[in-house]
Amino acid sequence: MKYLFKYNWENRDQWFELCRPLSEEELLRNRAGGVGSILKTLFHIVDVEYSWIQGISNNPVTDPKFEDYMSVDLIHQLSNEYRPQIEQYLANWKNDMEYVTVQVPWNDDSYFAGEVLRHVIMHEIHHIGQLSIWARETGVQPISANFIERGFMKIGS
Hints:
By secondary structure, the chain is mainly alpha-helical.
């Protein structure tokens, strides 16, 4: 799973770079599907990943407001700010944590820690698909979704 988080982070950073030159109008244009716009989707990806990991770690869950992060640079900074805590959680991950029952503060349901991690991975991949379609609508070639050509599983990486 750690490789898939690394994949998502590298891919996300590439999306930040790809979106940086887009106009504010394009970034905020209401689009079909997702959470409505390119910028809101990037923010949502970062917020959801962090919230779930904080929640299952029994750490306080902050609730950043989109209105405070209305640029690619600000959302990228937020992503970079959150990432070390997520990396720490993943560095401490052990196989016996897979079926540990966890709860998050925003609902009363219980989950397995392993299913939450997989949910977070898939959530981002889902939204990256939406961003790919929207990028094409703006005339921009989307970021490659290839895992294989990124070299994550090379010895020593």
